[in-house]
């Protein structure tokens, strides 16, 4: 059940003492980097003056722009000769950022991913098929080495080539997979096309889904179609990648490993901490990285700390599934809307397929939202009234939630663009 029982179930008092000890070491290590050395000097801060976790909100915040402005080596806290690997963010919100690791950093990261996978029931007898992109992206290699640390047979399938993925699952009796949730939904059509029943014709029992925000409804759809147990995974390249937070068998929030990361939730406007249970922006500090320590990194991800203990016995706090990013938010006619709100509603409506696309247009002084929705093939049997009824229902349910009336267009399954990586949900054609 536990990969490292002593650490995973450590009493909170002891865990916080460990965090304080590691944070002090991190602050000293960060001072060796050009960026933090400069910040410390400008603010008059000395790591030797830091005494208590209560003082954390007084430490400087770090942003993605800081990482970009210090490209490529401005955050390094060790000589370049000590580095053994570089990873990069996807760059979907601007110029990509890079993260560097020493051998010790990689060992700690691999151990965390193994801890996550073992927690869900993965054992050395499992066959792990990794359906994520390898390369600069952290998801592929992060899980790969975590599974090898446990002792699994690893199939580095990579992304795409859906029919081969299914063949690999069947031929090599895959029991655990790692997959992007939107791709898992897309793959349902391929299983149906091949007339392969994933429940009877494969031995997959566990799926790790992550790399993009998704709703509980999407998880349930995946579990209902495939019969897999789908566990939510959270990570970001600036904090290593996968292995930052993970669901336990209780599937009620993601344990964030507080022996390796200091966690805060702040109000994104005031930058003040908010209490457990209240939604805000996730801010994180590395506690065990020597090559490139990062202090109080603003992730832009919106979530909250779930108050109270977990039934699994682990003492590391849980975060709720990511609601979205502060920079994902669309503002339409003065209303703040997140793509995941649209997904949540759509996945609850019978007949709606597995893919959708939001297009924002500006006509004169008016903004308009068009939601293209794939629906089941049975709706395209010539019965126009049936299509119109579904279109009205989707429009009404979206309007009730997002408070504006979208223009809903129903399209045939498989007609919207698909991505083998993170799904592109929003196209904003508005021009100032």
Structure description:
The chain is globular. The longest helix has 19 residues, at 12-30. It starts with a helix and ends with a strand. It has helices at 5-8, 12-30, 34-43, 64-69, 103-120, 138-150, 162-171, 181-193, 198-201, 216-226, 339-346, 384-402; strands at 83-88, 98-102, 127-130, 153-155, 176-179, 206-209, 229-236, 241-247, 254-256, 261-266, 280-286, 297-303, 305-306, 318-319, 324-325, 330-332, 335-337, 352-363, 366-375, 407-411, 426-428. The chain is built from twelve helices and 21 strands. α5 (103-120) packs across α6 (138-150) and α11 (339-346) crosses α12 (384-402). The strands form five sheets. Strands 4-3-5-6-7-8-9-14-13 form a nine-stranded mixed sheet, with helices on both faces. The protein has a four-stranded antiparallel sheet with strand order 10-11-12-15. 31% of the residues lie in helices and 25% in strands. The protein has 432 residues and is an alpha/beta fold.
